[in-house]
Amino acid sequence: MINKAPISPDGQPLFNYYQDCSLARMINFLNEAVLVINKEGRIEIVNSLAATLLGVDREFPITQNLSAFVNDASGSASAFIKTCLSGDKHEPLSSPPVEMSLRRDDGSLVSVEMSISTLPAELTFTDTLYICILHDLTLHKAEYGSLKRKANTDFLTGLANRHHFADYLGQQWDKCERENLPISVIFIDIDHFKNFNDQFGHIAGDRCLKRIGETISLSLPNRDTLAARYGGEEFALVLPNCTAQTAQLLAIRIKRHISQLSTRQFMAEQASQLTVSMGVATHIDGRYLSSEGLVNAADTLLYQAKSQGRDQICYL
């Protein structure tokens, strides 16, 4: 909706006046994207950084309302702006930053933090003007996403780390409990890996761990399964909505794929077969009291497989 523009003291439309006034020149020197809006939310001034952020020319139709740029399915951002603009004109306003999404002129979205403050009366010619400072969160979100991925990932194998495994298992346990679905956990241990490391060195050992991690990952179904390096030469899988039979079949497949790897691929002087021991546990109908109980069961079954001669799968 286009509002009728007010008139400045010298008789010209106010938005034209603001574009040339000292206020406009001042905000253009600020190192932040800045909009000046009136009490109805109509944009009066745009500095160059805000124009770039919104993908508009600084001379774009100033009569547009800020709401035209707000991407707000929940209505929370619009409510925030409305609340800021509905206060008493004599009350100074300085809102804390609120995260929201803005729709740029080309239709793309940009995530920003917006804060709204009342401009001093001596800088304006209307009852009230507000300065909106927009902080672009694009780089921040990209950096946060990268840090979060690193925090959740095992550097060597690229699989989830033990911390992420525990968090994910807890989330999926709660979900499966609510929906009365089974959940399975598989533990995998590389047989005699210490001997392999001692004989061929840590570089070969690291290559072996990485290749086995890749083999496990490629063996998983395309669903909510999570594979993690649990520690050392031990790997663990979370299998939401997975029955005992399906988990056992997956364990057999992973074991078969790993057995097809040769130690010669990891700089070993002699070719020999890699084997793993595995423990598979499934929770359904209240079998375990907690996700920790399920993990302990899978771990116990893994050590049972190792104590019985290794190169085998034990399940419950």
Please explain how this structure is put together:
With 316 residues, the protein is of the alpha+beta class. The chain has two domains: 129 residues, 2-Layer Sandwich (Beta-Lactamase), CATH 3.30.450; 163 residues, Alpha-Beta Plaits. It is built from ten helices and eleven strands. Strands 2-1-6-5-4-3 form a six-stranded antiparallel beta sheet. A five-stranded mixed beta sheet has the order 8-9-7-10-11. Strand 1 and strand 2 form a beta hairpin. The longest helix has 18 residues. The radius of gyration is 30 Å and the shape is elongated. The chain starts with 13 loop residues before the first helix and ends with a strand. The N terminus is likely disordered.
Summarize the structure.
The protein is α+β, with helices and mostly antiparallel strands and 316 residues long. It is 38% helix and 22% strand.
Q: What number of domains?
A: 2
Q: The biggest beta sheet, please?
A: 6 strands, antiparallel
Average pLDDT works out at 85
- What's the N-to-C terminus distance? 66 Å
Rg, alpha carbons: 30 Å
Helix and strand sequence: HHEEHEHEEEHHEHHEEHEHE
Number of helices: 10
- Share of helix, binned: 25-40%
Q: Which CATH class of the largest domain applies here?
A: Alpha Beta
Examine the secondary-structure arrangement and name the CATH architecture of the largest domain. Answer: 2-Layer Sandwich
The share of residues in extended strands comes to: 15-25%
Give me the CATH superfamily of the largest domain: Reverse transcriptase/Diguanylate cyclase domain
Cross-sheet strand order for the largest sheet:
2-1-6-5-4-3
Based on Cα principal axes, name the global outline: elongated
Low-confidence stretches: 1-20
What is CATH's topology name of the largest domain? Answer: Alpha-Beta Plaits
Structural classification? alpha+beta
